[in-house]
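re: ur msg from earlier - yeah i can do the zinc ion complex, just paste it... oh wait u already did. ok heres what im feeding in:
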Amino acid sequence: MDDSVNQEKSILALEVTEEQKEVIYNLFCHNNWDYTEIEIKENKEENKETNEAGDSEDFEEFLIEQNENFDECPYCLCKPCITHENNRQMWWESEVQMAHTRNSSLRKTDYKYFWTNLFHRRVWQDPRYLERKRAALRQDPRRRNYIYHRRDLMPKCVIQLVRSWLPNLPNVPYMGHMWE
Ligand SMILES: [Zn+2]
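and the outut:
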């Protein structure tokens, strides 16, 4: 249960690396905590001035670069695919779990993590993705037939990997069509 709802919130500003930031994001996801990112303008200005290299990159919005040495996945639009070993995250399942009815809710948690990974690669803003999303919404205006997280469609590669980790019992069909 989320007991953080009734607790008072305060702002915590930390200077972190991209890696540390991703770990923090994953920790929040893991605990089902919501967070609000707050841009701290004063710090930004100060840091710009004191940064010897004049390098303001560190203060730009968190972005994970695509690796141009790999082909782009036609589903998640990442190089390499977000489900590729190179993109392995700490929370990835290391072995296939036993088929179980509870797996359906565990899959939702994994979709949430993948949503965050794809968010940091700007996939949700890609015009090609937005076009596919519009097409899917035309077919499924109530968002019942595809797998969504935060109103975004989970790509086929993610669904396949997560279902392989956390399978349904035999003869239990999966909810949600594959979006391609
Ligand atoms: Zn992919």
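cool cool. Strands lie at 148-149, 152-153. ping me if u need the other ligands too
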